[in-house]
Specification:
single chain, 4 domains, Rossmann fold, globular, DNA-binding, about 10% strand, binds adenosine-5'-triphosphate, DEAD/DEAH_box_helicase_dom, hydrolase, four-way junction helicase activity, helicase, six-stranded parallel β-sheet, about 775 residues, seven-stranded parallel β-sheet
Amino acid sequence: MKQAHLSTPTSPPSVFSGFNFPHSKELLKVFRKTFGLHEFRKNQLEAINATLQGEDCFVLMPTGGGKSLTYQLPGVLTGGVTVVVSPLKSLIQDQVQKLVSLEIPAVHLSGDIDPGMAESVYRQLSYRDPVIKLLYVTPEKISASPKLISIMEHLYMRGMLARFVIDEAHCVSQWGHDFRPDYKRLCRLREKFPGVPFIALTATATPRVRKDILHQLGMKNPQTFTSSFDRSNLQFEVREKKPSKLVGEIAELICKHYRNKSGIVYCLSRKECETTAKELQSKGINASAYHAGQSDRERVMIQRMWITDEYQVVCATIAFGMGIDKANVRFVFHFSIPKSMEGFYQEAGRAGRDGDPARCIVFYSYKDVTRLRRMIEQEPGNYEAMKVHRDNLYRLVQFCENRADCRRLQLLQYFGEMWTPNCRRNTQTVCSNCSSNVSFTSVNFTDEAKEMIAFIKQVTGGPSANRGRKGARWGQQFTLNYFIDVFMGSTLAKVTQNGHNSSPVFGLMKKKKFQRGDCERLLRKMVIDGILQENLHIGVHDQAISYATTGPKAPDVLSGRKQVDLRVTEGRAARASLSAPQKRENEVHQALLNELRATCRNMANSMGINPVAIFSDDTLREMAANPPYAMEELLEITGVTELKAKRFGQSFLEVVYKFLPQLIPGRRRKHQSVSTNGQEGGGKRKRQTSANNKRTTKRAKTQQGGKKAKAPKRNGTNSRASPAQPAPNAWMSKASNNDGGMSKFQFRKSGAGGLGGGLGLMPDPKLKRARSFLSGPGQFMG
Ligand SMILES: Nc1ncnc2c1ncn2[C@@H]1O[C@H](COP(=O)(O)OP(=O)(O)OP(=O)(O)O)[C@@H](O)[C@H]1O
């Protein structure tokens, strides 16, 4: 694989870098002579040095990044046997073959090894100084074979158990996409063989899964080596799926751009694999199906023929491809959506391992979500596991639906990387969102959402009414599509028969000049956000039907604690009668967010640290959506600790101050509280505007149509004043003081009459809590 060009922040040199270790000379010799390699990739040398020093290691590298070397090379160098736990027989066989081809003594004990061979392996392992350097096993083998455990005990007693390698370590976490119960039992190895170092490796893990992996494996203080997950040579695209035309579309893509080029088409079911392969064949493409319904032999043969390019395309279920080291895969298409972001990234990552451009397209249809949900709910397992899978699926849906943010950025953010890739730099790999010339803007649909929720609740009886497969219900059952019909003013018979054409919400979205697609996206977003929910039922013909009802977050919307925004194309936004001030406000908040991000990036670059070590993007979004005007308000923002506020806060407040003239429009802002008597404010803390800025006062007056704003007091206090409101000119002087400014900001009281008749801007802590990554400005797009 060619080295990807990464614009990630550079990590500081590790204590494990370099060649000044006792083992370094021998290491270089084996690296060059045995493995035939010349240059280490990022983090390889560091991880190898660390494990050779007896450290536990956690290695996170993207697919094809070169993880195997980080344990194979130490395996060769160290005395004793390195035990590698790997999830798939095919993967194990492939690795063992490769090692043997390099004349490295490697063996496996996977399920289908013949008994004579297994005996021979056991015998060799019982020698005082075994020749075997790497022993590959499945986690199931470790769980089920007392003989293997006993062999390992003997190795351990003789000091010949060099290390344990946990490959595809995300399988240990049930928050991951590929949970394997036997992986979870691997922590027993730690108890049984104390002092034997572990290496856990994975190509896909969110911060949450990473934490869980270490917890599950009992790795308390590992050396962690993380490479960027960016695969800059991959082009990401999500296309609308038109089922009846899809195979034709795929065939055309292959014939036009990938004639005789290798690729994978991932399908959801065996049947889909078969029919897709057949149809591609009928269009002259050399394709084969690959799925669990075929015999092991058949699958091995298909895999081999694809690796050697005898088959151009494999139409496969997800079981295909893990660990296959085929460099020249030019495309990975998802005929139906994958089950999770991790699954998607792992599958897509099988393209372009040689570093040349490759294309990854997901064909997305919301109908597939119902199919997948049904599959998830039919899988054996407890409710928790099912819920995790369902959440993973909805996260992927959210990715597919977001047509505004860079796809690469979305993926990297999902994996916890906080930097902005320059996706547009390369026209061959620019993602479908960055190459689109449609511009988006955010529209607040909270009022409409409230009406919809009230209607759905009224007709369905709320969430408790539709629970259970055949549960008792007081309300009626309707699908999300039915509600879309109602809100779009459809005159379908079922709508009129139910009398919903006379409801006030009938045609609500049509009146807003919305297209059906936009209305669909809004309702799906409400499902993703938990404002609505879909309950899966099995119909009379064994068909899965999802009935919609209100979700757990609906009360937050009704009470005004949660806002419902949808990104729509600007033209549509205008048609949706977004008021001019509303639009201006959105733009200001977006511009503020951009500048906050730039500040964070620049600071991080100058300090040589990751921007996330300063503030996460979620924190910056919250800051932009609800700008802090003082240090104490900054401290209210999720992710801002006192230490961070002290170290970095001033720079961020200065950015906010720069936007003050636009942020003080003298009218009620989004997150303001309104007391029952119509007076605003009334909360413990109010974000209030500075009073002694004449420019803004004047502006506020104008915006109120000439209504006189309450005269600001210069240094007085006011019952509705925030205790921390520096005047802009005072802020500027604070900024130059360079003392962190914290104490002064906290205790200085400026004039507090506020603008626009003393409008207090109070952050609503509940709203902040409810604000997910979806609801910040610029997040969710339709
Ligand atoms: N330092 C290096 N120089 C050149 N090639 C390398 C280097 N390290 C690894 N490779 C090659 O890169 C390819 C991918 O490596 P490897 O199979 O270890 O990736 P991986 O991270 O385990 O991927 P996956 O997640 O798909 O299993 C292999 O062909 C390997 O030989």
